[in-house]
Amino acid sequence: MIPRWAKRLFHQATIGDQSYRFMFEKGPPNEFVAVDCETTGLDVKKDEIITIAAVRIRGNRILTSERFVKLARPESDMAADAIKVHHLRQVDVESGQRLYNIWPEFLHFVGGRPLVGYFLEFDVAMIDRNVLRFIGIEMPNPLIEVSKLYYELKYGDAPPGTHCDLTFRAIMKDLGLPALAQHDAFNDALMTAMMFVALRDMKQRGARIERQRDRPRFDMAH
Question: What is the pTM of this model?
């Protein structure tokens, strides 16, 4: 697999549309963008984005007034399994825009800011596949994975074999954050932003997330 930094250098030199060169410029200081996508499935090679949402973060503030939310109309019909997850039916996405009409506004909204997400690799892979077709590059932005920050603050000093719960719900509960309805792109982006702000603050203060110690095992055999 080609390292992300190497792809960035390659794409910076080969970008097709020069008007998007701003993507390689550093974003405003201490600003980030939390992003989330809802898709027709989990196959990054064939499934499609149906909603994409993002919200800006400035320092320790989540700028809910600076949000990006778009409904996308997929090329193929919605699968039943996908509908059960995000509750969007074929008729619901018919009014959405085609992705190639969404990318200009999305890319200008994000700019060069780092992207924040929960299991962000999937969302970025879905975005990259489409942006690559649109302007000939993948997203060059730095990536910040909230589950990694959480792992470091809770399980970084855990002994081998410790059970690690990195689920969205577990992170929200440990941080004492209000839970919104999941599998809604904006709600998920907003909750991810809340996680990031809380985890970043804890890391800066040198705080850790308390972990329930494993109980010692006693051999009851006689």
Answer: 0.87
Helix (H) or strand (E) holding 50: strand 49-58
How would you list the strands of the sheet with 31-39, edge to edge?
61-71, 49-58, 31-39, 115-117, 143-145
pLDDT of residue 217: 40
CATH architecture of 16-205: 2-Layer Sandwich (3.30)
Contact (CB, 8 A) for 67 and 91? no
Which tens digit of pLDDT belongs to each residue from 199-211? Answer: 999 999 999 999 8
Label the pairing between strands 143-145 and 115-117. parallel
Q: DSSP letters of 196-212? A: HHHHHHHHHHT-----P
Distance CA 126, CA 203 (A): 30
pLDDT in tens, 8-40: 999 999 888 899 999 999 999 999 999 999 998
List % helix, strand, coil for the chain (3-state, nearest 5). Answer: 45, 15, 40
Can you tell me the distance from the alpha carbon of 196 to that of 30, in angstroms, rounded to the nearest whole number?
13
Whole-angstrom distance, CA of residue 150 vs CA of residue 144: 11
Q: Name residues whose C-beta falls within 8 Å of residue 19's C-beta, 6 or more positions apart in sequence.
A: none
**Would you list the domain boundaries of the chain?**
16-205
